[in-house]
Amino acid sequence: MWPFNRKGPSGFSSSSTAEEVTAGIDATGLTAIVTGASSGIGSETARVLALRGAHVVMGVRNLTAAKQVQQSILKDNPSAKLDAMELDLSSMESVKKFASQYKSSGRPLNILINNAGIMACPFTLSKDNIELQFATNHIGHFLLTNLLLDTMKKTSRQSKREGRIVNVSSEAHRLTYSEGIRFDKINDESSYHSWRAYGQSKLANILHANQLTTLLKEDGADITANSLHPGTIATNLFRHMGVANGIVNAIGRLVLKNVQQGAATTCYVALHPQVKGVSGKYFSDSNLSKTTSHGTDDDLAKKLWDFSMNLIKLRFQIPEIDRKCGYSAAKALLDSPLIPPPKRSPKACLWPHCHRATSGIGVETTRVLALRGVHVVMGVRNLAAAKDVKESILKEIPSAKVDAMELDLSSLESVKKFASEFNSSALPLNILM
Ligand SMILES: NC(=O)c1ccc[n+]([C@@H]2O[C@H](COP(=O)([O-])OP(=O)(O)OC[C@H]3O[C@@H](n4cnc5c(N)ncnc54)[C@H](OP(=O)(O)O)[C@@H]3O)[C@@H](O)[C@H]2O)c1
């Protein structure tokens, strides 16, 4: 249980759960999209919105995981209306496909919850050649929102009910680079800092909601856009943090928010009548909260909007590009460096470390795991022999991901060195053999 549970002006506190902040609210007739609903805060948000009667569409990259979430929600709430649709926010093509399928389904859209996210991963480029955290956490949601805005406007007009866009940001937006958003250095690997880049993408979530507010007001649309910090919750989000992930999982579950509390602010901002007409605000613990000077910088919000818009237009070769606003930075980002494939897709690779992989069972284990798509790190005494093994595997499976690192299990010093090098590589580890 979260210890600091003093109630704020809304009547809720950091210990309020998503069910508590939506008690008595009837969301029947509303349709909501929740991105990243296959795990953590997103799955609890989907469960509680469905519990209140909303039709929830889960936008997920892992349909199998979403199916499991769906089944477990339906077990407790057989009348829940839930669908899952494939959506990879790190790929503009996938976002476009999702939006087009959603629109052609003819469904209305009252609530859009931009929740999916990745945190502090090693430097990686997305399929569109954009740093992965910025691409997933901001650009994917920016494009998704833009593509669904007409549907939301139409829904709010026809249903005469306010539409709501909810961006799940983080207090980590305070950790961003000193200039807020580094428009000309988004893809600069040499000065990349995994936490600052996460902070930058989360600041972008806030600025996106702020600028949307300005534009929706100008447009006279009955749609609000807000951002929020959900609290600190031990979820899969910490998967890139090595030892810290272990600590968060072991101790965090006792002292941090649980996932029911973690989804509260999202559900509050999405459904609560107290939030009616409130737009361009930042929430935390189901109450209004304060952001930084960057988070309230209207010029920065406008600059980010123009930059993101140009990125999208350039990517899809849409002719009406605004060459004054953010054009050169957006163009430079897409054009260079010319590294077409993503270097690592952290969630897509598994990193088992197979010791003694240079002979016998170890070699065959490595070969078969690599054949099945696993990224294998061979922990070996003899790097030359491991090189031969790697070459023979690559001959048979050219796409195999196999690496070798020196490890002598008879020497504690060597084991320590191996583990320390592995940890500092910040690679995830799913299987240890
Ligand atoms: N947990 C915290 O302490 C905390 C604190 C502040 C803010 N937040 C924010 O809360 C949000 C939810 O995080 P969480 O804690 O619930 O983490 P989580 O359990 O890891 O959930 C993140 C969700 O995002 C999805 N996702 C990641 N990359 C995606 C992509 N390219 N396309 C589509 N979906 C993608 C994940 O899908 P897969 O299952 O396929 O990976 C997962 O469903 C994030 O925006 C995060 O920044 C969390």
UniProtKB/TrEMBL annotation:
It comes from the Eukaryota. SUPFAM superfamilies: NAD(P)-binding Rossmann-fold domains. This is Short-chain dehydrogenase TIC 32. It comes from Arachis hypogaea.
